Amino acid sequence: MTTTPSHSSPLTRIAAPEGVAPSPHYSHVVRGTGHFVAVSGQCALDERGEVVGAGDPAAQARQVFENLRRCLAAAGATFDDVVKLTYFVTDVAYLPAVREARDAVIPADRLPASSAVQVSALFRPELLVEIEAFAVIPA
Q1: Which residues, 6+ apart, have CB-to-CB distance to 3 below 8 Å?
Q2: pTM for the whole structure
Q3: pLDDT tens for residues 90-99?
Q4: How many Cα atoms are found within 13 Å in the side-chain-facing hemisphere of 50?
Q5: How far apart are CA 99 and CA 7, in angstroms?
Q6: For residues 60 and 53, is the Cβ–Cβ distance under 8 A?
Q7: Cβ pair 105, 72 in contact under 8 A
Q8: For the segment 107-134, what is each residue's pLDDT rounded down to a tens digit?
């Protein structure tokens, strides 16, 4: 079992519990104490509600993570505090672009628990990626 304490919040990341194959893309378990923060699924919409990066999963993923950053900041949180990300993509082939955008804001030693789901569509047809986040901030 590999554990990694967080640098800025009371979180412990368990990358590979005993008997579970490790993944380089997420932590299997993240535990912590403090205040729970839930961020609704964010899509590639700018502050005016316009789609950013139509047809471009990498551009959309970058915008989604920027929206997540802004939402987390509104709650007093950062990506260091994120314990769980859920990815909804209209094609699993977009996951490398999503991981690249995630890796630009979350260091490899602080990866949250994650789930990825391919969906038939999001609420607007030009959207390719939606991501929700759960975080824990110090009490």
Answers
A1: 12, 13, 14, 15
A2: 0.89
A3: 999 999 999 9
A4: 3
A5: 21
A6: yes
A7: no
A8: 999 999 999 999 999 999 999 999 999 9
Decide: helix, strand or coil at residue 125.
coil
Intra-chain end-to-end CA distance of the chain, in Å:
27
Given a contact cutoff of 8 angstroms between Cβ atoms, the answer to whether 56 and 102 are in contact is: no
Handedness of CA 26, 75, 100, 10 (dihedral sign): negative
Q: Distance between CA 134 and CA 89 in Å, rounded?
A: 18
The SS3 call for residue 24 is coil
Residue 40 is encoded by which pair of tokens? 């609704």
Q: Quick one: which of 100, 98, 105 has its CA closest to 130? A: 98
Identify the CA nearest to 112 among candidates 1, 10, 29.
Answer: 29
